[in-house]
Amino acid sequence: MYIEQAYSKKYDFIKYLPIPILFFLLILLNFVAILLLDIDTEALMKQQIEQSSENAVFLQSVAPLAFFLVMLLVWVKFVNKQSIKSLTTARKKVDWGRIFFSFGLWSLITVATTLLAYFSEPQNFEFNFQPVPFAILFVMAIVLIPMQTSFEEYLFRGYLMQGLGIATRSRLFPLVFTSLMFGLMHIANPEVGKMGYLLLLYYVGTGFFLGITTLMDDGMELSLGFHAANNLIGCLLVTQDYSALQTPSILKDISEPSAGYDILLPVVIIYPILLFIFAKKYKWTNWKEKLTGKIVLPKQDVTIDAIGHE
């Protein structure tokens, strides 16, 4: 099973703490600074873009998370002594077909819904296409966005899901915890500052969707594909003045943002439909056990306590 395979004699929960603590500490410091200094994140980003360019600000925003991905994978390999394959999937090898299926499906849905919004309310959009900046963005995005989204998936649906699952002997606790933390990770985003904290429910809901997908499928492949499509197609297709990733995209959304209960539409309708599609295609069964069952570890010649010390 996906969580159990991370356990070995060398398992020590303390080793799982440094990178998540460092990452969340940086997010917390950023959020506290915004509150204490009363920073207008939208105005700040606009100023940064005027001083450089959208692509330069995009690079500054995404590159650190790409670096965090490399750091996390190196840590897993040499400190946790765990293979990257076992962090990714319980299958004998990574199923790239699953990644591309999820990526393609969500890309299609994203393009379709964006075109529907554009043609139904064209006054809410501007044609923003600029060939040279877009070409530069495209090259950067296809390299950095999958690294950015993979870091978030490997941290939440991989590293923390497995580490907390083994430490607590539970599937439900890491599902709930990582989903909540995934939502809170976005608390300093300009979108949240513009639209309000209700938007965090969307991020938490997305965390639950990706966590359920990972546990039911015994691997991260579907989540990796979905998340990469969501951010990559999004940043290439449409941007807003208040978004965390402002880019020289094809379209620009100029409508006045509002965070009503309609933001939960993906969570309560679209995500369940995706789960149904995945479940049918990959023949998911035994939902209760996979989502809420106890973790049963293989017997070793050593024992570990509640937090994983030998």
From TrEMBL:
Superkingdom of the source species: Bacteria
A GO BP entry: CAAX-box protein maturation
Keyword Isomerase set for record: no
Transmembrane segments: 16-37, 57-78, 99-120, 132-151, 172-189, 195-215, 222-239, 259-279
Matches recorded under Pfam families: Rce1-like
GO MF entries: endopeptidase activity
The keyword Heme belongs to this UniProt entry's keyword annotation: no
Keywords (A to Z) from UniProt: Hydrolase, Membrane, Protease, Transmembrane, Transmembrane helix
Annotated ranges, domain CAAX prenyl protease 2/Lysostaphin resistance protein A-like: 137-233
Protein name: CAAX protease
Taxonomic placement: Bacteria, Pseudomonadati, Bacteroidota, Flavobacteriia, Flavobacteriales
